[in-house]
Each structure stands twice: as C-alpha cells, then as structure tokens.
C-alpha cells in the first residue's frame, strides 16, 4: 500500500500525506533488512542516526532558498508564527528547531479539567484494556518493555496496566518542541537505551513493537498535588527515531525563557515547553491510569473513520485512522468532569 492519509481535526478533511524519504525507508525495511541485516542495524544506531541528521539538517541551504517562502511553506513553516525572521533560517536544522509564539498561535483550553496535546503531530488513540474498543495489542510497543525491563521500570509501569494511551507521530516538518499535557510534580525521569527506528508508517508496520525498541526518555508526572491536573499519574515518553540524535530537556515556565533541565521533584505546568527533539521524525506517547481520562469525542470518532487510506489499517486489519492535532489543543477531559 503506497498511499497514507490522515484526518485534519478542525475541518474533518482527509489529507494525503507526503511521507519524507518514503522510498528509502521502504527499501531499508524490506531489502536491506532482509539481505544486509548488519548494515540495517548499523543505520539504526544513535551515532549513525546523528550523522544522518547532520548531513540532512546542518548543511547550509542554497542562497536562493534563503527566505524562500515556497520552500518554507513546503516545510510547514508559517513565518507569522515564528519568533525569528526569515533571515535566521539558513539551515534545515534552524527550520526544524524553530520557536513559535505558541501563546498566541496554539491556544489552550482554559478549563483545568482539560488534558492537552504535547505536540503538533498525527495522533492515534489506544488502550490496554481488553474490553475497550480502542484496544491495540502489541503492535506499536510491548507494554512490558516500554518502561524498561529493570525493576524500576516495571514498578513505574504498574499503575498504567489496562490504561489508555495516545501516540503522537511528529513528521520532520513539524514544530519540534514538546509541551506538557498536564500539570504536576515530576515523580520520575530516566532514559531507556535503544535503537532509532524510523516512525514512517511503513517502517512502523514492518517491525514488531518498534517503540519499545527505540531509545526513549520516560517522564512520570504525579498530578494529584496542589495545582495539579488531578488525573492520577501520567507517563510521557519521548521516543527518538531515525536522524534524531537526542532529546533536549528545556522546561520553561514562561514562554521559552530561563529553560531548565527536567529534574525529579520539579513542578511543571500544563502547556509549557518541556523538551526539544533534534531534527527528523519522532514520537511522543502518553499513558494514563485506567479510568482517569476521557478522550475528546471528535478524536474518538476520527480514529474509527472509514474510507481513509491508512497504512496502519491496512497492516493491522481494522480501522486505525490518525488525526492531525496541534500542540496544546484538547486531547482529553478528566474523568467525571462535566465535559467527559
């Protein structure tokens, strides 16, 4: 299946996605993976992924492209959103690591019962509960491995068994800052080593549980504190992918000012910047304890929208449609609130 489509949340329009380096990714995950497994695995190491990122994102743009609105538009860059002027964007890295006036162009629900999207991304909703219509079993990740296989990882995973989750696929053209979906205290923060599989839909469906094999940063947020969102524990995963060298933690309590590395015990506020992906495609995953949130009705409807040419639907045998969401937009309501 060559085409991949998603649903634009606001309009409901079905959009054809132009997948970056789709032919190369398909080659890597078919012929190279089968005929040259050593080379395939080498390409997925963090060091080689960082080298690919440098070659793709750090070489200067040709002078004729500097400030070229057509080029910037193809990258999904709206100049009116950016803090920097067009003369700043001399390399692809600067484009993909751009800062925007999110406080103006990414409005957030004022209701404190709202959980918000952590990124500009293509979204899939899922659940680990056996009786849930959102159940997706062992396709994108292995729950037993995702938090890490050591004793500490298994302990942090326990509250989320049978819970709901959301997967946010950031394409290379997206705004690459991650924002906090909830308010609360950082209960745990750690990294799990791994590879850098591509998050291209073709690659995801070709590999068993790719997200629990990739390098990832795990943040556990306790929202049951004063000023917190009161939705229990929330787990946020930042999963590195092909050409992502690192995730830079840079929490800012006000706009992008006085950015700080994340630390256990830190209070973080919903909607504020948390981290920055180095360029390329990448993935966020949120986990919620069972029964603590109710996903927004429009997102639930779009997930099961038929007639959309989704590679996930084709590979897994049932409807799995992504919605395009914006950072800080409504993702879910606290269970028991008037909206849920």
Can you summarize this structure?
The protein has 340 residues and is an alpha+beta fold.
What does this structure look like?
By secondary structure, the protein is α+β, with helices and mostly antiparallel strands. The protein has one domain (17-59, 99-334). 23% of the residues lie in helices and 23% in strands. It contains 11 helices and 16 strands. The chain has helices spanning 22-35, 37-43, 46-57, 69-74, 92-96, 102-105, 143-146, 151-157, 201-206, 297-303, 311-316, and strands at 5-8, 14-16, 114-116, 121-127, 164-170, 177-179, 184-192, 216-222, 233-239, 247-249, 267-268, 273-277, 282-288, 293-295, 323-325, 330-334. The chain has a 10-stranded mixed beta sheet with strand order 2-1-15-4-5-13-9-8-7-11, with helices on one face. A 3-stranded antiparallel beta sheet has the order 3-16-14. Strand 1 (5-8) and strand 2 form a beta hairpin. The protein is globular, with a radius of gyration of 19 Å. The two termini are 37 Å apart.
